[in-house]
Here is the input.
Amino acid sequence: MEKEILENYIKAGKIAARVREESRSRAKVGAKLFDLAEWIENRIKELGADIGFPVNISVNNIAAHFTPSKDDETTFKQGDVIKIDIGTHVNGYIGDTATTVSLGGNEDLLKASREALNEAIKIAKPGTKLGEMGTVIEQTIKKYGFKPISNLTGHGLDKYDLHAEPQIPNITNDMEYELKEGQAIAIEPFATTGSGRVNESGDVMIFMLVGPRPVRNFDARRIISFAQKRNGLPFAKRWVLSGLGMSDIRFRLALRELSTKNILHEYHVLKDVDDCKISQFEHTVIVGDKPIVTTRYEE
Ligand code: CO
Here is the structure.
């Protein structure tokens, strides 16, 4: 990897790690989810990076893709298991990292995904098969008596691309694909007390521009130009409503045309079964004989 690119990854990672650690103490009983989200996104900019994707704050049986809407009044409660998934970027090079905060209990559930991540990082070396990585993650999580979420994966990272190849599996499999020197990847094991699979809910708070084309609706045009400023990275509905001063109903009307024309990718909120709890830890890693964890926290 070129020195300049690596420096961007390192800077993005450092800031993501710092915001992640600072955010943990703010996820407490009675605090508003909305306030935490806004604090995190502002803090990223304050520290000199840009936002890689809207912060995901997913509670209990929600695994991913939840970010509060503009009028979200939810507060954290005793016993909540809160996943905070943070994305930064510097010149398009992304730092993607997640932590889980438990507001009482579930220590082993957190340990399971944290240890699975650490074990996977140890083998993030050239020549490691993706199948081996999935096996290490699954076995570590099962050792604690939980299930890995089989239909959520880590992913490669590239400039302004949060979904580069390859997908990094969280379960054992026969993928022969081998990791390569200098590849940037995000490894993110999820451990669940539930079924081990997530389903798409009807809620969508996060979007990404995939195919801009002409639209009739005036607000749809405004949303497209808002989205174009993201250079292919995801954005939140919350940002559009406050940034463009658009009402929820107008957004939803515009979305009809944007959806039927496949202009936006919609990140549905992903959930396992009711009443279950899910933990997640994630780091961004540059593959090498000594893997570089860009999102490791250093004081
Ligand atoms: Co990720």
Observations:
- The chain has two domains: 3-200+270-293, 201-269.
- The chain has seven helices and 15 strands.
- Residues 96, 155, 186, 188, 282 surround cobalt (II) ion (CB under 6 Å).
- The two ends are 26 Å apart (CA to CA).
